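Annex B. Sample input.
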Amino acid sequence: MRILRVLFMFFLTASIFTGNPDHANAQAYDMLLKGGHVIDPKNGIDSPMDIAIKNGIIVRVAQDISAENAGQVVDAGGLYVTPGLIDIHAHYYWGTEPNRYLSNSFASLPPDGFTFRSGVTTAVDVGGAGWRNFQHFKEQVIDRSRTRVLSFINIVGDGMSGLPEQNINDMDPKMTALAAGRHDEIVGVKIAHFRGYNWEPHYRAAEAGVEAGIPVMIDLGLSDIPLPLDTLFFDIYRPGDILTHTYGSPVVGPGFKEAAVDEEGILRTHWMDAQQNGFIFDVGHGGGSFFYDIAIPATQQGFWPNTISTDIHTGSMNAGMKDMLNVVSKFLNLGMPLQEAIEASTWKPAQVIQREDLGHLSEGAEADIAVFRHREGDFGFIDAAGGVESGDQKLETEVTIRAGRVVYDLNGIATRRWR
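Annex B, continued. Sample output.
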């Protein structure tokens, strides 16, 4: 399926660019984003550019594209224009079955209500479905959403249904890998919430990832003695696998997990070594997995996330996390450069999930685009412990475009006047 998608994009691009680099300029554009400051990390763009769209595809990125042949012109002057954001850790297997936690139940969310308003065009549900119920998740959510919804399939066949995530007997690497091979939307394997001093579930998740050729995302559970993560980083998993909740596990508080920093606030050496060796560290903010007593000393010592994500669900959406853009803004205020924060929310997650057709504004790519206003002022950002940190900058979504269509427009800058 991945090969078919690549071939489709190749022939679609070839039909637009018929060997003449100026061909796109000679035809009418459906939409032209004009005057915005484009940040496109894959292509090394960080400057004012215009973007022309035709039939849902980006057909030209250049300075001063003529608006003469554009069906619609969006004035992006004074705004930032980026690829649509990719939220690599979210919970969107929503449903109405009681007592199933984040698998077809009330704690998950319908994606379209929570993605576009944050500039997110692609969201990855992590672990809501296992091989037993992935088809239901696909039919109920993936196929009915305008948001591009992908999945890290749970190593537990029944998905993230609560207590059954402790059932090692339902952790089947072969069936998990088989499901991944059958469904193009599956981009990784998820393991989460296992309680106990036991590596067996991780060996099974790692086996599934290797067999399917996709990364594994690890959400550590609880253990009365914290498990030694150097074993996890170097002996069980591979470069390219992902630890989420990077700034979770408070130094003082509940949870028996090894934090990124020790009791003195010193970054643990094997965490940095693992990152330099290619292990991916994801934010996964959530309702209880981002603490300033971890994030501040870790980032001050140069330990920044590879990918920024929300871990959005009903328990986090109105708490300190709020939405994707609020999390990105937190890292801006911790000192992460805007260009790096955008890369960690677009091109890098696309690479991590092996979907390099996403996360950039290349000519020929599907037109998933976000337009942001960079606000300056006095803002507050809350962590999982209820502590607030002040900040002086914040991103706000003005427009989100998915496959060439405007799906969110805060102030009507991409909408025709009613007269």
